[in-house]
Amino acid sequence: MTEKLKGTTTIGIVCRDGVVLAADRRASLGNMVLSDNVTKIFQIDEHLALAGAGSVGDILSLVRLLRAEAKLYRAKAGREMSVGALATLTSNVLHGNRFMPYFGWFLIAGYDSKPALYSIDMTGGITEDKFTAAGSGMEFAFSLLEDGFREDMPLEEGIKLVLRAMKAATRRDIFTGGGIMLITVTKDGYKEYSKEDIETLLE
What we know:
Layout: E1 9-15, E2 18-24, E3 27-29, E4 32-35, E5 41-45, E6 48-54, H1 56-77, H2 83-96, E7 104-111, E8 115-120, E9 126-128, E10 131-135, H3 138-148, H4 155-172, E11 180-186, E12 189-192, H5 195-202
Antiparallel strand pairs: 1-2, 1-10, 2-11, 3-4, 5-6, 6-7, 7-8, 8-9, 11-12
């Protein structure tokens, strides 16, 4: 199973007016590239998102469960689940399955009264972060995030920082690559950036 955990980099950062998530698109098994077109960031509800680093099957299974729970919550409560509630739910699911775990590291991001970001390990350990990274290229990403992050930075500046960190990971980590997926969550909701948008931002 450790072979399946090697290949990916996911990054999250909280900005003044939203939260940014980015991930590479490569799936690898050992030293072999299986695909360069894998989705690792998922919309859970209008203002909620999850990024996963690890086993693709486990990530997709968790996403299906969380989407169903978010819909059920909205139907019962008449409002969207908060970011903290989704993070707590994810933590509880992972902890409850710790003897048959979901092999992955998860970032929960969203916007309710303000932007928020949580990091959750495969046994349900949860941390609220201003910025974080997970996966095989996380060391390279963290070096840029530590240097470039500042409190209350505007969304546009946060996007550029995340893309620089992701670019460093794709250059230095052989298990990270295949392009970049970039999303933001603001008070206006979930937004995914096109390949063309990302290329323009990287220039």
